[in-house]
Amino acid sequence: MNDWRPFVYGGLASITAECGTFPIDTTKTRLQIQGQKIESRHAELKYRGMIHAFVRIFREEGTKALYSGIEPALLRQATYGTIKIGIYHTLKRMIVHDPKDETLATNVVCGVIAGIVSSSIANPTDVLKVSTKGEVSMKCIKQENK
Predict the structure, then answer these.
(1) Burial of 5 (0-12, 13-18, 19+ CB in 10 A)
(2) Cβ distance 53 to 30 under 8 Å?
(3) Which residues, 6 or more positions from 20, have their beta carbon under 8 angstroms from its beta carbon?
(4) Report field, pTM of the whole predicted structure over 0.90
(5) pLDDT for 30-88, tens place per residue?
(6) Longest distance between any two alpha carbons in the chain, whole Å
(7) How far apart are CA 83 and CA 77, in angstroms?
(8) Of 123, 120, 111, nearest in space to 86 by CA
(9) Residue 111: is it exposed, middle or buried by C-beta count within 10 angstroms (0-12/13-18/19+)?
(10) Phi/psi zone of residue 34: left (φ > 0), alpha (ψ -120 to 50 degrees), beta?
(11) Are the C-beta atoms of 122 and 76 separated by less than 8 Å?
């Protein structure tokens, strides 16, 4: 019960995964925002799909643009992943001492509880991540159309 490793490893794994997937999230957000009519000059569609958007952002704006706004995402993963994976493993070891005795029900119950607790605690960081991501993407689109 005093094992801190699942918490640390869960946080590190979540942060690493976020670093790998953030450019995809940036591309997705740009695709979602591109057709919104904020001003008539911003209504033009610039990207034809995920791959086209990713390549175009990379070529025209560089790697930095793909990782723009990553800080709130890392904060979210540092809290959410740490709590979720740490609680999951801690609960599982409290209920089942021998891994051979694990059942699907035990894993599901521990996963549901860990997910509820971590989502509840990390929700403010998720709100920050989503709002920052939208703002950064809107700023980039407005700059492109000047």
Answers:
(1) exposed
(2) yes
(3) none
(4) no
(5) 888 886 655 555 556 788 899 999 999 999 999 999 998 899 889 989 999 999 999 99
(6) 63
(7) 9
(8) 111
(9) middle
(10) alpha
(11) yes
| Cα angle, residue 127 at apex, residues 130 and 74 outer, rounded to 5° | 70
Contact criterion met (CB below 8 Å) for 10 and 91: no
Taking residue 135's Cβ as centre, other Cβ atoms within 10 Å add up to: 11
- The token duo for 81 is 């992943």
User: What are the structure tokens assigned to 136, written together?
Assistant: 């950064």
Q: Which of 75, 67, 44 is nearest to 137 (CA)?
A: 67
Helix, strand, coil tally for the chain in percent (to 5): 80, 0, 20
Which pair of tokens denotes residue 25?
A: 């999230």
